[in-house]
């Protein structure tokens, strides 16, 4: 079983698949926009598009039009003034992409994973071939995984790993900090966010990162504070180098 899905979520999807097989219908509803979604074939732009996609032709077309233009910027890592990491992002966080992320993160539309993995793959292609030797997903809070039924970042890490032949190494754990902490971060300013994240990401003793060249992976970078806190924790636990990739970056 895919480790990025909870067993409850995986069974629910299997059950839906069986129900669709018993009671086939020509049209279902698009998981993104709610319009009728006819089954669409595989896209030439990203692999493994599900045959029973719940996306409509309009949204698939919008996805195909979504421009991937890899950008790089330097990010200051906490507690090390001279230490910066390179962050690569593939798409802008515009209104359409925001809708995609909402569907992917909160509404169970894991059909979007191949699209975001395709964006992350473009970021990976911008790196030196041997720059990294493992993929470290930014850990998602356990309560969110339970609530949603899947770990969306881990899902992307595993999908990218299949394309680039690198192992996924969950080298970080996220320490729970109570209800207020796990609320959405998008609107918070960088300094507040940085203070909140102090001590939240800790090394996973079962997956040591000593001497490794980590490719830190997240879905979206907003203030950059999450990536900085994770990179800091990776360096503190002995990582040789850290490079970050995110599908989208908020400007
Ligand atoms: Zn649609």
TrEMBL record:
<dbReference type="InterPro" id="IPR029057">
    <property type="entry name" value="PRTase-like"/>
</dbReference>
<protein>
    <submittedName>
        <fullName>ComF family protein</fullName>
    </submittedName>
</protein>
<dbReference type="InterPro" id="IPR000836">
    <property type="entry name" value="PRTase_dom"/>
</dbReference>
<comment type="similarity">
    <text>Belongs to the ComF/GntX family.</text>
</comment>
<dbReference type="InterPro" id="IPR051910">
    <property type="entry name" value="ComF/GntX_DNA_util-trans"/>
</dbReference>
